[in-house]
Amino acid sequence: MADIWLMRHGAYEGHRPGHHAPYNAALTEEGHEQVRHALPLPDNITGIVTSPVPRARQTADLVARLTGLPIVDTSRLLAEWRAPSSVLGRTSDACPPDYQSWRNRRLTEPSLRFEDAESLAELHTRAARCACFLRRTAHLHGSLLAVSHKLILGVLTHLREGPTAFGTAAVAPWNFAEIRRFISANM
Fold it and tell me: Which SUPFAM superfamilies would you find in this protein's record (predicted)?
């Protein structure tokens, strides 16, 4: 059976802990260095799949260039959790009161959405579909490196927790350019 490895993208422009990153944030030079230091990859990887979000795609492109591995697919299933547009670049204390109310209720009511955000239930469903996509793609192409984002990777690795896996993913550390083996539970 083919292995699946998960990698968080490198550091990106404007990164500040506690802020939601804008979609188009690019890798910084530090991010490029983090990716270089993450190499060499595990020996059996034969291809890369990536999120289309620029910081992840740039990470995957750099890995591909440095290793000679092909990017075999780009999938929105690997994109980061879609935060509400109104809070991008803000800390939680600078967000509207109705956002604060939603944040306080989202783990107990995971189907709730705020504005254009992805609900936690929707994120969990996408992560489950992503696990199937990764297994199917690894079956076709061999062992993979999947380049993605902290929250979706955290939910993906805690699928059994259900939609509340977001709570675990939000606080669990996952360093920039860190690579972990994906233990895929059949869901």
Answer: Phosphoglycerate mutase-like (SSF53254)
- How does pLDDT run across 130-147, given as a tens digit for each residue? 999 999 999 999 999 999
Is residue 114 within 8 A of residue 133, CB to CB? The reply is no
Q: Is the pLDDT of residue 18 over 70?
A: no
Element (H, E) at 147: strand 144-148
Task: Provide the token pair at 57.
Answer: 């795609």
29 vs 25: CA distance, rounded Å = 13
Residue that is written with structure tokens 């083996």 in the block = 181
CATH of 4-12+25-83+95-181, one of 3.40.50.1240, 3.10.20.30, 3.40.50.620, 2.60.40.10: 3.40.50.1240
Least confident of 96-100, 107-111, 120-124, 132-136: 96-100
